[in-house]
Amino acid sequence: GEPKLGKAALLIVRSPATAPGAPKDILLRPQSPTNHSLGEWTVTILEPPSWNSNPLGFRLRWESIEQENEPAKDFDLPVHEPRSEKDLDVKLPLKPGRDYTLFASARGVGDFGEVLVGPETSVTVETDPAAPANLTADTVDPTRVIISWQAASPARRFQISRWSYKAWQSTSCQTSSDYGQHYHPPSDHTYDRLMVRSNCLGTSSVVIDGSSEESSSYRIPVFNLLPSAQHTVQVKACGARTCSSEATLVFITPPSVIPTPLITKILSGNTSSLYLEWYCTLPTGTTGPEFEVKVKRSGFYRLVRTLEKAIAIGDLSSGTEYEVEVVLSLERTPGIRE
Question: pLDDT at position 72, please?
Answer without folding.
Answer: 76
